[in-house]
Specification:
globular; 346 residues; 25% helix; 15 strands; 21% strand; seven-stranded antiparallel β-sheet
Length: 346
């Protein structure tokens, strides 16, 4: 109910020490799907957010306060495997629950899985090795659920991301009230804003040159911001759109992709050296300007003037209007797809 179009939105900001991401269209399972993979994963074993041809979409955030067991570390971190398999076989949110019920245990995960489907359903599954708890979007106040790196059903006070979660909710508050949330709210606002809810300060346009990389939504290890925009009930699931910003989000260009054959633009595919996506490499080169101190603890310091400055020449300042134009053009292309599939535009 909080989105401007009435269509569900599933946002994933990926944080990982592996900065190279690619977008891949995969066939061979029950359902074809499009998902984010690490460039080094050439066998496509672990998907980190995506959508399939049935309109089912999934992402995850790592949790650190669910499991109480003796599962060995080498048997953990299988969230990407779970998501790949779910994209291959699930059509609905309920299908994902059935998958978790029937798959062999221990699952090898400690995560919050966010899912949506083409029927208008959405939920978070706070999932451990043996159990899970569902938080259904139908029951969510304001029609929105936010998760960072802890589970609400887990051990209180443990895990990470409490400040980031509150920051996200505060930044979203005016959009929730106005019911005007679009994918751009996530990629152009939350993913580029250096607001700290504990300090009550937004450094984004503060004029500060240096800030410490701590508890902002964009982190040094943030490597992608992707919004999966689903469909209205009755719409063709192939209209599901992945608004994709590969690389460090404050420096990233947003490019739309779709879940059908030919729906992934070449610059997002692993067409470069070492299976890199050319667009991701471009963004990471810009990131070097932001984190340019290499000695000592320099990697933890953000040169904010490279992103935002009084002259208006910062990387983010220049990218935001370009990305908004990309959205306009992307929605035009989406409308053409809708007309071709339905014979009339909604």
């Amino acid at each position: 109910e909080a989105s401007a179009s009435g269509r569900p939105l599933l946002w994933k900001q990926r944080d990982t020490d592996n900065p190279y991401n690619v977008l891949v269209h995969v066939t061979g399972g029950k359902y074809a799907y499009t998902a984010v993979f690490s460039a080094s994963d050439k066998q496509r074993r672990r998907a980190f957010g995506g959508a399939n041809e049935a309109g089912f979409a999934i992402m995850n955030t790592a949790s650190y306060n669910i499991n109480r067991d003796n599962v060995k570390e080498k048997d953990m971190d299988k969230e990407g495997v779970v998501m790949r398999r779910a994209l291959e076989k699930c059509r609905t949110v309920d299908d994902f629950g059935h998958y978790l019920d029937t798959v062999a245990k221990p699952l090898g995960v400690e995560a919050n899985f966010g899912v949506i489907d083409a029927l208008g359903n959405g939920a978070y599954f706070e999932t451990g090795n043996y159990t899970y708890k569902i938080f259904d979007l139908k029951d969510a106040e304001d029609g929105i659920i936010v998760r960072t790196n802890y589970s609400h059903s887990g051990r209180p006070g443990e895990g990470h991301g409490y400040i980031r979660e509150k920051s996200a909710l505060q930044l979203l508050a005016p959009h929730i009230a106005a019911r005007d949330i679009t994918p751009a709210v996530f990629t152009e606002e939350l993913s580029r804003t250096f607001y700290n809810s504990l300090l009550g300060k937004d450094y984004t346009k503060s004029g500060d040159k240096w800030i410490v990389d701590q508890d902002f939504i964009p982190r040094r290890i943030s490597t992608a911001s992707i919004v999966i925009e689903g469909v209205l009930p009755g719409e063709n699931p192939s209209l599901t759109t992945m608004w994709t910003a590969l690389g460090y989000p404050p420096c990233a260009t947003v490019i739309p992709a779709w879940t059908g054959d030919g729906g992934v633009p070449e610059e997002l595919q692993g067409t470069g050296a070492d299976n890199h996506a050319p667009q991701c490499d471009k963004v990471l080169q810009l990131k070097e300007q932001v984190f340019h101190i290499k000695r000592g603890n320099g990697k933890h310091y953000i040169d904010l003037s490279k992103l935002y400055n009084s002259e208006g020449t910062g990387i983010s300042q220049q990218l935001i209007p370009q990305n908004m134009e990309n959205y306009r053009q992307g929605y035009k292309a989406l409308e053409q797809r809708r007309k071709q599939l339905t014979g009339n535009a909604r």
